[in-house]
Write a structure and sequence with these properties.
heterodimer; A: 14 helices; 77% helix; B: 293 residues
Chain lengths: 319, 293
């Protein structure tokens, strides 16, 4: 697809996103902020699974780490919330990097299990350190208000904050993946031995990718603590990890736009399912999951790319 | 000492159940390279079928056998109807379809039978078996015996029958098998049927211990996953042995290490497995993956 059309589309979407907070209800804005947050987390997971080929069922752990970093810093030390977001990201970067080192020895399923164990352990560990985390009761925060002089209510402000963070991280991810580093990351997925022969330090790149991926997810977790204004251990169980995984596969592996499609899916489809059938909403959700995979085995982003390419070819052909 | 033996035996009994589910996982993984997240939920469906048959007044062993037959056909049909359309798709796509299947089965069961826990009968007497000073629960011993019986039958099937040989061939080298006239697609379907049958046995053996509800297998699937990884995802015998090891570790840790208790024992069991994995990345008995360069 020509980049001019793509750019035009992006500008239209962005303009829409700027106007949206002034036309819809606060609850819808809250949902949109959630979508942006999920998109950040999915972007991080997609860098790891889609681009680098390392499986993780443990990203709920990093999401929790980010959320609790923010919550504890605000709750215990009254740090201004703006500072907690980079700290959460940095902490998850380090944690992810360190976790990535032993993970180097594990492949495929075995890595999936190691990360799965991490995800399972997190709620229990959070309950164990009750003094800091408030145990199963969790920590209640207050929704941050807009800075003085900005005429926005808290929901509008959080909408713009999450949108801003998402855009920054999207651009960073795009630049990271488009360059030399990105090629190395993808080369490791496609053929680790060949990559090594070309002089890529696979061990370093794999652990670093793990760290970056964890940092994205941690930032998402930090933002979610602010938007929901509440953290509790049971919100970060292994099902969150599975939700993330379905999000990136539905959205489209190894594609940046896939993160946004996936986030829309995991935020809104459960609600629709609830509307369709009160008795068995999850059955409807499951049907949606399977249906999407039948119709678009490469995710929504893959289907969109295919559709756009087809449309463009037809237009380009002389009739 | 007596307590130790008792704990080991009851650990072996639950371990046998983890091992059966792990075996079902390994069978599907060996044949198709996918981990069937819906395996546990399929076992719960089978157990509810058994419950319904028993409630309709069927004698236990008749219901047991009928459930096995229904589960086999059900597993076979699921592969043909749900999994086959995504046969050539990327592995993660199939995994998501399995997750979708899990969610659907769970929700539909809750809808039909409600989420209230139901007692499930054991075919074995209530009276414990006494050997020396040690008492064993009859159900523990019986469940272990049935698990072993299923394993031996399965081993014999794969080792001594033509169909078993064909299934192994289809898993190992689909292209060559197809050239020999083996219908590879159907072999996969039969694999799903057998896995579903093994799951049904595990479900019916575990239901008297944990009582029956739609989420019964969620915890057990996690242990089974751990067992299969510990034993090696490429080794059926290893998966079962892995299950037994996990069962015993879990029980002993819960009994003897007090600050851990029942709350953290899952975490500890998983930590032990992780340490094993770091030393042997393909599990205790698995083949190391060899890549063609």
């Amino acid at each position: 697809m020509p980049s001019r059309a793509l750019r035009l589309g992006l500008v239209v979407v962005l303009a829409g996103a700027m106007v949206l907070p002034f036309v819809v209800t606060n609850f819808r804005l809250f949902q949109c902020a959630q979508v942006f947050i999920y998109a950040i987390a999915l972007l991080g997971l997609n860098i790891l699974i889609g681009y680098n080929g390392q499986f993780s069922l443990g990203h709920s752990a990093f999401y929790a780490l980010g959320a609790y970093t923010t919550a504890i810093m605000i709750d215990q030390w009254s740090v201004p919330y703006g500072w907690t977001i980079p700290v959460a990201g940095l902490l998850c970067l380090i944690a992810g990097f360190l976790f990535g080192i032993p993970a180097l020895r594990l492949e495929g399923l075995y890595l999936a299990l190691a990360t799965f164990a991490l995800a399972l352990a997190v709620p229990q560990i959070l309950k164990y350190f009750e003094h800091w985390t408030g145990g199963s009761q969790g920590i209640v925060l207050s929704k941050p208000a807009a800075p003085k002089g900005v005429p926005l209510n808290p929901d509008q402000w959080l909408y713009f904050l999450t949108l801003f963070v998402l855009l920054v991280l999207l651009v960073l991810a795009r630049n990271l993946l488009a360059g030399r580093t990105g090629r190395a990351i993808v080369a490791i997925r496609d053929n680790p031995i060949a990559a090594q022969a070309m002089g890529v330090n696979t061990a370093l790149y794999k652990s670093l990718t793990f760290g970056v991926s964890a940092a994205y997810t941690g930032i998402a977790g930090a933002l979610s603590a602010l938007v929901i204004a509440f953290v509790a251990p049971d919100a970060f169980d292994v099902f969150l990890s599975i939700t993330f995984l379905s999000g990136i596969v539905i959205g489209g592996l190894a594609s940046i736009s896939g993160a946004i499609f996936g986030a829309l899916f995991i935020q809104f489809v459960p609600n629709w399912a609830q509307d369709i059938s009160k008795a068995a909403p999850w059955a409807i959700y499951g049907v949606f999951l399977i249906g999407f995979m039948y119709v678009m085995p490469r995710g929504i982003a893959g289907a969109v790319r295919l559709g756009a390419a087809r449309w463009w070819r037809r237009r380009a052909e002389p009739s | 000492m007596d307590i130790l033996i008792q704990q080991v035996v009851s650990g072996l009994a639950t371990g046998g159940i983890y091992g059966s589910v792990a075996l079902a996982l390994v069978m599907i993984y060996e044949a198709t390279d996918i981990v069937n997240f819906a395996q546990g939920q399929m076992a719960v469906v089978s157990t509810y079928i058994a419950w319904s048959l028993l409630n309709a007044g069927a004698p236990y062993w008749a219901a047991f056998l009928a459930t096995l037959a229904i589960s086999f056909v059900g597993g076979l049909l699921l592969e043909r109807i749900v999994i086959r359309p995504v046969e050539g798709a990327p592995v993660l796509t199939v995994v998501i379809v399995c997750i979708g299947l899990l969610v659907i089965l769970n929700s539909v069961l809750g809808w039909i039978y409600s989420y209230i826990q139901k007692p499930f009968p054991s075919p074995f007497p209530d009276r414990p078996i006494r050997i020396g000073n040690v008492y064993f629960g009859a159900h523990d011993v019986g469940a272990l015996a049935i698990t072993v019986l299923v394993l031996v039958a399965l081993y014999a099937f794969f080792r001594f029958t033509t169909l078993g040989l064909a299934m192994r061939a289809a898993a190992q080298n689909p292209a060559s098998s197809r050239l020999c006239g083996i219908r590879v697609g159907w072999m996969l379907a039969i694999g799903w049927g057998l896995a579903s049958l093994i799951g049904a046995v595990a479900g019916m053996m575990v239901a008297p211990i944990v009582t029956l509800d739609p989420n019964m297998m969620a915890g057990i699937l996690i242990y089974a996953f751990a067992s299969a990884t510990l034993g090696g995802f490429t080794s059926p015998g290893g998966a079962v042995l892995g299950g037994l090891i996990v069962g015993v570790i879990e029980n002993l840790v819960g009994t003897y290490v007090h600050f851990i208790g029942t709350e953290l024992k899952l975490t500890v069991a998983l930590a032990v497995i992780l340490i094993v994995l770091l030393v042997r990345p393909s599990g205790l008995f698995g083949r190391a993956a060899v890549h063609r360069v």
